[in-house]
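User: hey, got a sec? need MFS family permease folded
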Amino acid sequence: MNAHLAASDLLTQTGTISTPKDRRRVVFATVIGTTVEWYDFFIYASAAGLVFGQLFFAPAGAQFATVLAFISVGISFLFRPLGAFLAGHFGDKYGRRVVLMIALIVMGISTALIGLLPSFTSIGIAAPILLVLLRVLQGISAGGEWGGAALMAVEHAPKDRRGLFGAAPQVGVPLGLLLASGSMAIMAVIAPGDAFLEWGWRIPFLFSIVLVFIGYYIRRRVEESPVFLEIAERKEQTQAPVVKLFRKHWLLVIVAALVVAGNNAIGYMTTGGYIQNYSTDPEGPIGFDREPVLFAIAASGVTWFISTWFAGWLSDKINRRRTYVIGWVLQLAGVLALFPLVNTGEIGLLFLGCAFLTVGLGFTYGPQSALYSELFPASVRFSGVSIAYAIGCILGGAFAPTIATLLVQATGTTAAVTAYLVVMTLIGLAATLLLRDRSGIPLGPEHEEEQAASPFLIRKK
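Assistant: Yep! Here you go:
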């Protein structure tokens, strides 16, 4: 073996995860952990679209109550950067693993407490205030979760399989959507009508405690990232990683955030509860029952899962940038088809529209962990991926359901929503085209100079 083999590659090949069993454990733990996190995050959005307007914001009036419920979804995104800053700081100093464990516990406790909250009719204004405070804790947790999960997966991966390994935290989103929508759909069957409003929606929130115990048990059995172990062994942890990140890589943070924003705005049509609300509104143009819509959304999580994992694999074959460009084209087609299919009033076509949309979403999300990990230098990588992702979620998904609701109320048609989603997709495409593909770049701290070179396609001479 070459005596000069990078320590991070040595760990990956012969140390920390030297066997296929060890690698499977990393992937499995990442998938389970992120699925639990996003399940918790998405059942809030689903409940916001279905019941929170009536339970917590009813005094504002029917239409504005829905807007306030969706605003409460978006508020949590404003606190994601705080979670990302904290997670990035401690993750770059003390390791990825401990941050992931804390994020999982905070998310689970917050979610379970939401399931126990009294409604506005019981405790008045305290109800929406407590709801928003718990949603803020969810946002802080989500801000710290994704970066750590992405790095644990990619930094453990062989160089030529980072896209596939990196797809592990990405599939947590469609699996979380499937689990959240599926659990809500089952409860809508078990507790139909007023029973769902009174207590049925609470059960999926309380079930989060069980999922958190499972996720915690699995995650604590996974070793720390080999790249961080090498950084710690060299005693090269950055004392102020966030300061260094913005001093040297601020433009990269912005461009990387725009890549996420282009995907996130479209994804939150379903994960943010908008399609669920729009298609089940009894005063709206469609007026579906809750159960078939929730099952259709859950089923679209399957196609999202498949396309996300496939895109991660494909990015190892044709590189991240090309995979993303294909994804933006597919996503644009899905955006243009979504509302024409939903507005037919046929539940099968609503599913088809959501499923078609998820194909492009998977292609613009599956390679993201690998893309981000290869963009930022090792010493600030946790901070870089976490903060860029959090900012992108604010620019994209945070208020996408609110914006869509207000556009329909103002224009009386979903055409304006389609135009908004087209613009966001084109922004994501433009940001991707600015970046140079860096598939396979060494990730260890001994290659910091190479990692710090401009990742942009056009470089200053």
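Quick note: Residues 1-18 have pLDDT under 50 and may be disordered. Let me know if you need anything else on MFS family permease.
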